[in-house]
Amino acid sequence: MNELDLIALLLPTMSLLLIGRFIIWRRFLKPSDAKVLSKLFLYIFFPALILKLLPKEDFTTLWNFKYVFASIILILILYAGVLAIHIFILRRSLKVGAMAAYAGTKFSAGILGVPVLLQVIGQKAIVPTAINVILGYFIILPLTFFLLNFSSESQQSSDSMKLILLKTLRVSITDPIIVATLIGLSLSFGTIELPLWLQNIFQILGGATTPVAMIAVGMAINVDNLKKQLAEVSWMSGIRVILSPALALFLAQTLNLSPVFAIALILSFGLPTSQLVLPTAEQYGVYEECSAGITTLSTLAFLITWPIMVWLSNSLWPGVVNFQ
Whole-model pTM? Predict the structure, then answer.
């Protein structure tokens, strides 16, 4: 792979980000309108893509144990590390520590991860992407909800603990991406095949996944978020887009992951902080400015680290990156 190959691979997706910024610059839409595109992605286009591609996968190869194990280990290491630093070194509250750990661990598996992985490794990306989303909803989200709601009163009340767990479970299992993934897995495991006309509908809708997602990300970038808490935002963004993929690279080689899943692991854990972090911070009234700043700075930094990760991945596992 030479520099022209790398540019040809990344330019189409990068251009969609620029289109998003152009839309805001020309005031065709407002930055808040990006939320509409994000919802279309999360509720329609990405679930349609999952239902188009996932049923065609071999169920026996879907849940790559090493990939799942590596992802869980990385999530727990990053989450515990950021939480410990904020509580024991920076002397901040449990809520602040939990929200910071969420911002440092919750990468953009959907809105940015899907187009990035599809662009680099093609349709093989659908499996690790589905795993990323599921782990995010059933590990990172429940743990964060639990810590944010934890108090002396809830510690003494088993009913409060049950309410927290039920709320987390309800949010997780009603998410359209989770529902689409479970349906896709069921179809992959069984012998049921979707009608051709329905597959065609899913293909048309799924085709909008990448452009809608990347334009929404471009529209949502707000450099004004970088004016506050710059020191905290900077080192947390560094954890997200530098330390995290470095640990993923180490673990991928240590566990001898297959090339596709090794590259998916590195790219996934090099993704910026999810845009879903800020609404959670605003809901609980904690770490709002930092969450907004981390989301923005990590996204901008990713534009630099992404080509580096692709080049390094192709050097270590040649023949996997999709240059077509």
Answer: 0.86
